[in-house]
Amino acid sequence: MSQQTGQTHGVAFVGSGSAKLETALSNVQLAKIVDTSDEWIATRTGIRQRHIAGPGDSVRSLGAEAAASAIASANLQPTDIDLILLATSTPDDLFGSACQIQHEIGASRAVAFDITAACSGFVFALVTAAQFIRTGAYRNVVVIGADLLSRLTDWRDRRTCVLFGDGAGAIVMQRCEGESDHLLSFDLRSDGTLNDCLNAAYEHESVTLAGDITVQKGHFSPVTMNGREVYRFAVKRVPEVIEKALFHAGLSTKDIDWLILHQANQRILDAVATRLKIPSEQVVSNMAKHGNTDAASIPIALDEWVRSGKIKNGDTLALSGFGAGLSWGAAILKWGQ
Ligand code: ACO
Question: Over the stretch 139-175, which tens digit does the pLDDT of each residue have?
Fold first, then answer.
């Protein structure tokens, strides 16, 4: 398989963690801020509440909490970690927050950097981590998805503000000894022609610096989204990319124990599962509690299902992220050592 050219080592998925956020904002509370209702939001999206970061929370603090918890669950120490990849679109520092997390958790040996691919970010980062492990460059890697979308939300726009929440989740990936490789396959895609469907763009004006030299002065605007277009894109492209990834792995949908999609909308989850003929009991959904937490949604869901004992060692998982870019991708993996 072309994805594995030059591969010398396998990958195992050995730990998970997530951050606990205190504050939840219910649909009923939101209906006091914008013209909406619990009934509209729940029916159209499946969301009942979302968590909002407190004044002292940050991508650094929540990402560090998730990473530390994942490292502990893998029975490792922070100093065992070689690489930290942080998938985020809302860093505390535009130069990157991964190094801040590296410092916060005391992973002094690790190299750390950010990856930005919105709601696909966690799957893209997981696949990137696997390349470093497969080539033998690194042994223990932490992949974090952390986003505070409340920072990029226009709380006056009912079409978007009802969807998003804050959160952080993480996994530990490790080099496998012997022949086994638990990342069975992946498929990643981008389509910049649809970029206008979902943005948090930099808006600026030109300010004269000297003579005819100008500089751009502005700020990042809140999320704008063509909801219907993103919905159409997701229900078509997500089943397609999962089927392609399954094909690379020589598997079929019957081999999947758990489907873990980016938690954007329950209707998208249902439509994808129906197209793939995967029973609803095997579809992981926690969006009623968390809303759409961007790059954090897949690792939070994964961690909740692992900790509750539903996902067991040896289970086959199909992960798929999708969103801004537009970007989308799937990874098929076996959980555990
Ligand atoms: N409360 C009440 N009414 C609302 C709300 C609201 N929160 N939002 C919109 N409406 C109204 C609209 O104004 C419209 O009214 P009108 O017919 O009088 O004009 C009506 O409800 C229908 O609006 P639509 O936008 O057509 O609603 P739709 O059924 O498409 O649902 C939704 C909107 C939930 C956003 C859906 O399109 C969706 O989930 N899309 C996918 C979004 C997504 O998955 N994004 C993921 C990526 S996010 C990332 O990458 C950062």
Answer: 999 999 999 999 999 999 999 999 999 999 999 999 9
Name the residue of 35, 37, 38, 44 to mutate for ligand 1: max ligand atoms within 8 A of Cβ.
Answer: 44
Dihedral angle sign, alpha carbons of residues 244, 323, 92, 285: negative
C-alpha 113/C-alpha 84 separation (Å) is 7
- Nearest C-alpha neighbor of 306 from the set 278, 335, 271: 335
Q: Which CATH superfamily is domain 1-191+222-337 in?
A: Thiolase/Chalcone synthase (3.40.47.10)
Give me 143's structure tokens: 């992949």
Query: Is 161 part of the annotated catalytic residue set?
Result: no
Nearest-atom number in ligand 1 for the CA of 294 is 51
337 pLDDT higher than 90: no
Taking 3-state DSSP, the helix, strand and coil percentages for the chain, each rounded to the nearest 5, stand at 40, 30, 30
pTM of the model: 0.95
Distance in Å, CA 158 to ligand 1 centroid: 8
CB of 197 closer than 6 angstroms to any ligand 1 atom: no
CB 272, CB 284: distance < 8 Å: no
Residue nearest to atom 32 of ligand 1 (CA): 227
User: Are 163 and 44 within 8 A, CB to CB?
Assistant: no
- The predicted-structure confidence for 64-87, as pLDDT tens digits, reads as follows 999 999 999 999 999 999 999 999
